[in-house]
């Protein structure tokens, strides 16, 4: 299995093909994954490039970290493993009440930790 690199501070005009061509100068590229906004399809300004070997990955870091491409200094380093995200949210929500702690969302849908939030006026005493 190859070594995955994080490539940041990319121009929003950079394509996967551009990255493939650039990183091929340092060795065999197994995969290029340009991260895009799921709603607009536009680049988010970073990508992951998988190099075939650890040595080729180190070559790429040495060659391209700090290199200016399309007017932007690239950040290239070994990608960290993806962190596990917690499933679901805490309590919260509901149709009324006085506000309360943090978090919460309307209509009883869950949301972050804490209670509160909701659909009511919040402060009943100030009429």
- Number of continuous helical runs: 2
Q: What's the overall geometry?
A: elongated
Instruction: Please write the string of helix (H) and strand (E) elements.
Output: EHEEHEEE
Q: What spatial order of strands do you see in the largest sheet?
A: 2-3-1-6
- Beta-strand percent range: 15-25%
Uncertain spans: none
- Average pLDDT for all residues: 82
Q: How far apart are the first and last residues' alpha carbons, in Å?
A: 67 Å
Helix coverage percent: 10-25%
**What radius of gyration results from the CA coordinates?**
23 Å
**Main pleated sheet:** 4 strands, antiparallel
Total E-strand runs: 6
Structural class label? alpha+beta
Q: What does this 3D model show about the protein?
A:
- By secondary structure, this protein is of the alpha+beta class.
- The protein is 15% helix and 24% strand.
- The chain has two helices and six strands.
- The chain has helices at residues 16-23, 54-64, and strands at residues 3-8, 29-36, 43-51, 68-69, 72-73, 75-78.
- The protein has a four-stranded antiparallel beta sheet. A two-stranded antiparallel sheet has the order 4-5.
Structure described in brief:
It contains two helices and six strands; from the N terminus they run βαββαβββ. With 127 residues, it is of the alpha+beta class. The strands form two sheets. A four-stranded antiparallel sheet has the order 2-3-1-6. A two-stranded antiparallel ribbon has the order 4-5.
